[in-house]
Structure formats: structure tokens, C-alpha cells
Amino acid sequence: MAAGPFVLGFDTSAAHCAAAVLDGERCLATRVEEMGRGQAERLMPLLEELLAEAGLNWRDLHRIGVGVGPGNFTGIRISVAAARGLALGLGIPAIGVSTFDAIQLADPEAAAAVPAPRGQIYLQLPGGAPALVTDSADITPVLPPDPAELACRIARIAALSSSLARPAPLYIKPADAAPARDAAPLILS
């Protein structure tokens, strides 16, 4: 078995389940499954398979890094809830990492971009706030790396983070689904 510290990083903010485990700076193993749905059912078994491949178990972990978005609302909630639950159960920190931070880990001056619905992009300029934009013709954005590399970057950032804040979803726009406008029916008992 390797020496550690061991950091698990995972992300379900897009059409995938992606995870990586680090031993210090070295990525021991990665797992990626492309999927439009089903992340909630697949995430925990995928993480167990990843740890087994790396020769580790849950108690070997020192930290968890989780992708907090932007991206798919449901996917983000799945990852964040799993990370918070694992951190609580294992007594280790979980650190939320945005896809923007993962992009800018390789290039801190990058205009980090994440595809958004309807041909838009989520964009964060270096030192700026994230925004939803439709036209970025004057900017050359850097898109997210492949999901395996994204999971490794999430784990690396978590390993270096001094934050102890619980991870929370990064939502840049409101959800497309909205509560009903009509009043709920009266339930008679």
C-alpha cells in the first residue's frame, strides 16, 4: 500500500460519474462513466470500485474533494450530498471545488468556461465572479478537462485547501424547473 495522504475526488456535475484517488501528488486510480442519468445509483459503487483498485478502503482517506459545479443541478446535489455524508461518517474534511478552479489549476490566467444549456456558457475570468454568458467572441475560453483529469484536479485542490467550509453547490442561474404557481390542493383528513 502507498504512503498517503490519500484524497478522494469526484464529480457528477455533467453527464458523467468521475472519480480519482491521490496518494500525495500521484493519481493512483481514476474511474469515469459517461451517463446522462443514474449518477445517484452509480456514484457510491463506482467510488468503492475505485478504492479497491487503488488498494484502499474508506478509512484510509484523509480528505474528500467534490465538484460543486457549475453544471447539472441534480448531478451537483448528488455529489455534494455524498461528499458531506462521507465526510461526516469518516470524520474527515470534504472540500468543494468548482470546475472553474479545476480549469485554472493548470492555467491561473485562463478564462474558465463550462458549457451551459441553450448554447450559453458559464464563464469566470481570472479574479472575477462567475457569470452566465451568451457571447464570448472577444474571449478565448478554456473548457473543462476530460472527466478523469477533472477528478484528479478536484482531489489535488482539496489536498492543498485550508478551507474547512462544508461543500455547497455553485449555482449561477436559477433552476429551469420552478414550483407550481397554483396553490396546492387542500388535503382533507
Protein described:
- This protein is of the alpha/beta class and 189 residues long.
- Helices cover 30% and strands 25% of the residues.
- The protein has four helices and nine strands, in the order E-E-E-H-E-H-E-H-E-E-E-E-H.
- The chain has helices at 39-54, 73-90, 99-106, 147-160, and strands spanning 6-11, 16-23, 26-34, 61-67, 94-97, 111-115, 121-124, 131-133, 141-142.
- The strands form two sheets. The chain has a five-stranded mixed beta sheet with strand order 3-2-1-4-5, with helices on both faces.
- A hairpin with a 6-residue loop joins strand 7 (121-124) and strand 8 (131-133).
- Helix 1 (39-54) crosses helix 2 (73-90) and helix 3 (99-106) crosses helix 4.
- It is globular and about 55 Å long.
- The mean pLDDT is 91.
